[in-house]
Amino acid sequence: MQTSFLKITAATAALCFSTLAMAQQTYSVSGTVKDKKNGELLIGVSVKVSEDPRINVVANEYGFYSLSLPEGNYTLVISYPGYQDFEQKINVDQNIKLDLPLLPSESVEKAIDEVVITGIKKDKNLTSAQMGAETLSIKNIEKLPVLFGEKDVMKTIQLLPGIKSNGEGSSGFSVRGGATDQNLILLDEAPVYNASHLLGFFSTFNSDALKDASIIKGNSPAQYGGRLSSVLDVKMKDGNNKDYNVNGGIGLISSRLSVEGPIQKEKSSFIVSGRRTYADLFLKANKDYKDNKLYFYDLNLKANYQINENNRIYLSGYFGRDVLGLGDTFNTDWGNTTATLRWNSIISSKLFSNTSFIYSNYDYKISLKNDDTVFDLNSKIRDWNLKQDFTWFAGNKHSVRFGLQSIYHTLTPSSASGTTVSSFARNPRYSWENAVYINDDYKATEKLTINYGARLSMFSVLGGDTFNTYENGVLTDSKFLEKGKFGKTYVNIEPRISANYRINEVSSVKAGYSRNTQNLHLLSNSNSGNPTDQWIGSSYTVKPEIADQISLGYSRNFNNNNYELNAEVYYKDMKNQIDFKNGAQIGFDTGADVESELLFGKGRAYGLELIAKKKSGKLTGWISYTLSKTERKINGINNNEWYNARMDKTHDLSVVATYQLNPKWSFSGLFVYSTGNAVTFPTGKYELNGQTVFQYSNRNADRMPAYHRMDLSATYEPSSNKRFRGSWTFGIYNLYGRENAYTINFEDNPDRPGTTRAMQTSLFRWVPNITYNFKF
Cβ(49)–Cβ(55) under 8 Å? Predict the structure, then answer.
């Protein structure tokens, strides 16, 4: 009887304590998390309450966090990869604004423990509801072996499951069966429409200027939209607001230099980062090529100013251009320009606002001259963009994102002039894209986390041109729409939800569904993409592309979270997919409406993605594998049956490892293998007017040879003082000299008349590199 009475008394006391706690006044603890050495705002930092591990928030992409706590004494535990854990004791009896400084790990042991591919915290894969997402450590990308020794975010993400390279040296990539244009690539919130240099051998992202990069494969939160397959969100450094720094690198074909420092100490800062290749300088050494041009340059700029403790403004820009020329006979150049003006405002201890004005421009120009003949071709796409985003920390269980976006597009289709062809100039096409969204990251229970939301997107065709309507390539209607008038408007609702259930301390399961729509489309007749590929918007003929994706995942960690295994399966159903009809006339010498050469249908993609990581110790790295299938079904192609999409690759394997031998030497290696791209080879030929004409059968029914290679690199970091640090990186691309096929062309065999031979072109066998990096 006494035991029962004690149990009842204890239960009653616990209930009274719980009720009292609920009745207590709740206060907010909020602020920003910064790098203590340079003042850089840190993204995705974990802030926990040691007295109650269930209270755990993550700083948003602008470094802001907010907690709700009853009155009392607490200890905050702040953790972030590459930084020393930090504890802060607080007494909560009112709303508190508390900025948290983190100190980078300086010891050799900490440096060895850093991870190339990392999450916000060691067990984030077990707690986050976000699916198909990875965050890249910019700091360690430089240790991976890459082509020409140039560290590259775009090349690194192609080593992750579900993300497939579009070809040798190409920075274009395909995600879960999507085309290259179905990836939303953002640099400080500005869309980048061509993220490659030198026909894809380099990307536009100079890693010296970058702070953070993350990729989400399809199941993106509602604040992202406009593409079907993925979001690559890249953010530039803010600049050191405490001290001046200079860093850069000198390589065999390119060099780079960055300068950053305070404008007004601890209140404002800047960063300027530039890069240029100089292959053209070597050409000048040969008199036969001295008038040729082959180079690119890019420039990243950013500055910020803290108006007061609650308001800060940022201005960032990117300028990049490629120039390729053969004397006066052939010249082409293309490039991107972006600019972002951003205002961060802490409206209250729970509400954070970000307002952005964004400009983006991509254009290309081609010029051909020969004696008296001249041919010029040009095209561009330009955006003006307004974004308003809010983060509302409604409580420790809810983190709500909501806002709106409005983009004014101007697309100028390819226009030509010259003496060898009939000149044709096309009117710009105008459109207005709008969206509103809301998204909630909800910690339903200690084990269950749900991320859910919706996006309402609207795309309006605006006047200023004649719009044709085609059905299966046949003109059925035509109308002129005056400039400023609204034409057809497409409205789509895009729901999305994902959930994570933590089975136990070391494993969890996930599930998700999302719908995405896309109103800008890239017309390309190559797998790797060319600068002259043409962007078009949804119109009276071209409808928005729609993708519905479902996915399931399982995660398990081992050895105190130092080993990690993640598996996901997905199925994606795609509508209004675009492809060229057979024999499409898409040459530069015609002014025909390109929409007349298009056909539309559906697509499907499904697969299994596996990745195993070792995240600490002297040896770190990962193994990723993708088994997948990607198909299209479009009336008028392949007898209206399913056929392989160009980006279909059955198998894709990457093995990546970094070994820290000692404080001075580290070694890295990678091996990649993938099934060859789907292509269409000729099945027969005939002769017409003395010319051989090849016949083709089913679309993409053949395969390029399998692709594989191994790369190695070594980094030497000699002893340095506090003001100067240098390092040498040595590497070799394609260690065993595999001649991977870049193209395969078919021609008559001169040695055996009447037969055909296949001619394979390979780009690289062995490519050594050496780069000297410095910082002071």
Answer: yes
- 3-state class (DSSP) for residue 586: coil
Whole-number Å distance between alpha carbons of 376 and 382:
20
Instruction: List the structure tokens of 318.
Output: 């990117």
Could you give the count of Cα atoms lying within 13 Å of 175 in the half-sphere of its Cβ? 27
Structure tokens at 590: 């015609």
Q: So what's the pLDDT on residue 679? A: 87
Coil, strand or helix: which one is 44? coil
Pick the closest to residue 363 from 578, 542, 533, 227 (CA basis): 533
Q: Whole-angstrom Cα distance, residue 451 to residue 442?
A: 6
Percent of the chain at pLDDT > 90 equals 51
370-381 pLDDT, tens digit each? 777 787 888 899
Long-range contacts of 472-476 (CB under 8 A, 24+ apart): 472/599, 472/635, 472/636, 473/581, 473/596, 473/597, 473/598, 473/599, 473/636, 475/596
Beta-strand (E) ranges in 371-518? 373-392, 398-418, 429-443, 448-462, 465-471, 474-481, 486-502, 507-518
- C-beta neighbour count of 583 within 10 angstroms: 7
Whole-number Å distance between alpha carbons of 239 and 243:
9
Highest mean pLDDT among 50-64, 244-258, 343-357: 343-357
Q: What does pTM read for this prediction?
A: 0.90
State the average pLDDT for the chain. Answer: 86
Q: Would you call 104 helix, strand, or coil by DSSP?
A: strand
Residue 240 and residue 39 in contact, taking contact as beta carbons nearer than 8 Å: yes
Among 405, 408, 482, 467, smallest CA distance to 436 is for 405
Provide the β-strand partners of residue 744.
760
Question: If you compute the radius of gyration of the chain from its CA atoms, what whole number of angstroms results?
Answer: 28
The conformational region for residue 36 under phi > 0 = left, psi -120 to 50 = alpha, else beta, is alpha
Alpha-carbon span 535 to 533, nearest angstrom: 7
Q: Average pLDDT for residues 472-499, to the nearest whole number?
A: 92
Tell me the HSE value of 288 on the side-chain side, using a 13 A CA sphere.
Answer: 0
Eight-state DSSP code of residue 126: H
Contacts 24+ apart (CB under 8 A), 748-756: 748/692, 756/682, 756/685
CB 430 within 8 A of CB 109: no
Helix (H, G, I), strand (E, B) or coil at 227: coil
Classify 713 as helix, strand or coil: strand
Between vectors from CA 219 to CA 217 and to CA 221, what angle results, nearest 5°? 115
Contact 271, 237 (CB under 8 A): yes
pLDDT in tens, 131-175: 888 888 777 677 777 777 678 888 889 999 999 987 775 667 899
Entry field: residues in the chain: 776
Region 287-293: mean pLDDT is 75
Q: What is the 3-state secondary structure (H, E, C) of 388-423?
A: EEEEECCCCCEEEEEEEEEEEEEEEEEEEEECCCCC
What separation in angstroms does the CA of 396 have from each of 92, 345, 469? 15, 21, 52
Contact 202, 196 (CB under 8 A): yes
- Distance of alpha carbon 307 from alpha carbon 167, whole angstroms: 47
Q: Which tokens in the block code for residue 494? A: 């895009």
The pLDDT of residue 699: 86
Contact 270, 241 (CB under 8 A): no
What the block records as the tokens of 1 is: 């009887």
Q: What is the mean pLDDT of residues 405-415?
A: 90
Distance between CA 584 and CA 569 in Å, rounded? 36
Backbone angles phi, psi at 347, to 5 degrees: -70, -40
Query: Dihedral angle at the C-alpha atoms of 767, 770, 775, 776, nearest 10 degrees?
Result: -150
Q: Quick one: tokens of 574? A: 């795609």
DSSP lists the bridge partners of residue 314 as 304, 342
φ, ψ for residue 50 (rounded to 5)?
-65, -30
CB–CB of 483/502 below 8 Å? no
